[in-house]
Design goal:
The chain is mostly beta strands and 465 residues long. It has a single domain, classed as Neuraminidase, CATH 2.120.10.10. Helix content is 5%, strand content 40%. It is globular.
Length: 465
């Protein structure tokens, strides 16, 4: 059997093997979701396009779903057959409560019962939740796309109350088809990450898994409270749950200047039991969800890329896992060659910020490569891996750079310069579509000023076949 496999793997005499393709993007088209979506700038971002919006755009069973707020603040969800350019919409009975770009809408799929779930409009306060009828996603062609397919808007998860200080909803599907909701309890600089889980009939609060306590000391001062900001939370093909993160300290005394960001270090944890217990990069247990021992800044072995708080390291950037289950992330900050103290994080990141591709290589070491593209923005960059494990960084304004797996992800080059999009800043990437039909698809909003509404679009790029 081994001999047969070896022979089968050998190329026939005189026949050249096809090389594994490197990264490339071929623009397929652009479709408009809304001619006048709500527009206001808050925390340097837009409520319809924020990095931590998982998922504002998703693909399931041959259909793509998008969600946003209209010019009147109404929450809308739309769908299309993959390849179509029209997006039939459903307006939900909820209106954006405040001009805060944190108050995004995130979607999730519970494969066990074919429902679409939405969590929306929260920033350290209560959330709004709605779910579809069962089976909507399993046979979309047979289900009319009307408001009747969605239930009432709730302020609990079917009666399960979580926390009055709720932010950053992120849905993630487990390998068994359950749906988990990741969120932060508490506030910036003093918060904890937590999980809830839906089994197809009932929501359960699994509890908090990161700690806000402990003492962190920099060369400037100390802080005794913080929160862990996730770059993402994702299952790989083998069922391991990965999360890369950065810490934000509550006490600005840890920084060289009050105009910076108190984020420091990139850390990594994983779970092999669906988020019940957490381990560091070396495999040592560092916390249990809902238990007394939570992942804390004082735990050893968490940091995989060290950086002090003086470089305006961005939180909640992006992560992905490759076909071998190895974690990758995009992180960004102002490198030391531009100075050792950022004094205005927006101006300094815009002038001198750079994005870096951080990943675990085949030898088990962490490797970091600077992507040779000036950010020109204070905002975040998204990461996608194609079926060949080539990497793509989607920068603010819709620019795309790529690096090949063959090079060890070191040959970063610009593949699309964002020309013609007129995108404001961050984009929302469909993390699920690449695996569905080999297309990089992202949502972006056109630049505007003040509170003048602007057009919201989805643009599609074919990746290597």
């Amino acid at each position: 059997m081994l001999a047969s496999a070896a022979l089968a793997a050998m190329a026939a005499p005189g026949v050249a093997r096809a090389a594994t393709p490197g990264p490339s993007v071929t623009r397929k088209g652009t479709s408009r979701l809304d001619a006048q979506a709500v527009f206001f700038v808050s925390y340097d971002g837009l409520v319809n396009n924020n990095s931590f919006q998982k998922n504002g755009l998703l693909t399931y069973n041959g259909h793509q779903y998008a969600t946003w707020y209209t010019s009147t603040g109404n929450a809308v969800v739309a769908r299309r057959v993959l390849g179509d350019t029209t997006w039939p919409t459903v307006t939900l009975p909820h209106r954006l409560k405040s001009s805060d770009s944190h108050n995004v809408i995130s979607m999730g799929v519970s494969r066990s019962d074919g429902r679409l779930h939405l969590n929306m409009d929260s920033h350290s306060d209560g959330f709004f939740y709605v779910k579809s009828v069962a089976g909507l996603l399993d046979d979309p062609a047979a289900t009319a796309w009307t408001s009747s397919v969605f239930g009432a808007v709730q302020t609990t998860l079917d009666g399960l109350a979580l926390t009055p200080q709720f932010t950053y909803p992120q849905f993630v599907s487990t390998p068994e088809g359950r749906l988990q909701l990741s969120y932060r309890a508490g506030v910036s600089g003093n918060g904890r990450n937590a999980l809830a889980e839906y089994d197809g009939s009932t929501w359960t609060n699994l509890g908090e898994w990161s700690s806000s306590t402990g003492t962190y000391t920099s060369r400037h001062g100390s802080s005794t409270a913080r929160n862990m900001y996730l770059h993402g939370i994702d299952y790989d093909g083998a069922g391991r749950l990965h999360s890369l993160f950065t810490w934000r300290e509550q006490n600005g005394a840890v920084m060289c200047s009050g105009g910076g960001i108190s984020n420091h270090d990139t850390g990594y944890v994983y779970s092999d039991d669906r988020g019940r217990t957490w381990r560091n990069d070396a495999g040592a247990a560092v916390g249990a969800t809902g238990g007394s021992d939570k992942v804390a800044v004082t735990d050893g072995g968490l940091v995989v890329d060290a950086l002090d708080p003086d470089h305006s390291l961005m939180n909640q950037e992006s992560q992905a896992t490759d076909s071998a289950g190895r974690p990758h992330a995009i992180i960004s900050y102002v490198p030391g060659r531009f100075g050792q103290c950022t004094t205005n994080y927006v101006a300094d990141r815009t002038a001198s910020g750079r994005a870096f591709h951080l990943r675990k290589n085949a030898s088990g070491s962490w490797q970091k490569t600077e992507i040779p593209v000036a950010l020109g923005s204070s905002q975040r960059t998204k990461l996608v891996l194609d079926k060949y494990d080539n990497a793509y960084a989607i920068f603010p304004f819709g620019r795309i750079a790529g690096a090949s797996k063959a090079s060890g992800h070191t040959d970063w080059t610009v593949l699309f310069d964002g020309g013609g999009l007129n995108a404001f800043g961050e984009v929302v990437v469909d993390e699920t579509r690449v695996g569905a039909d080999n297309v990089l698809s992202f949502m972006y909003q056109e630049k505007s000023s003040g509170t003048t509404p602007s057009a919201l679009h989805v643009v599609d790029f074919a990746l290597p076949a």
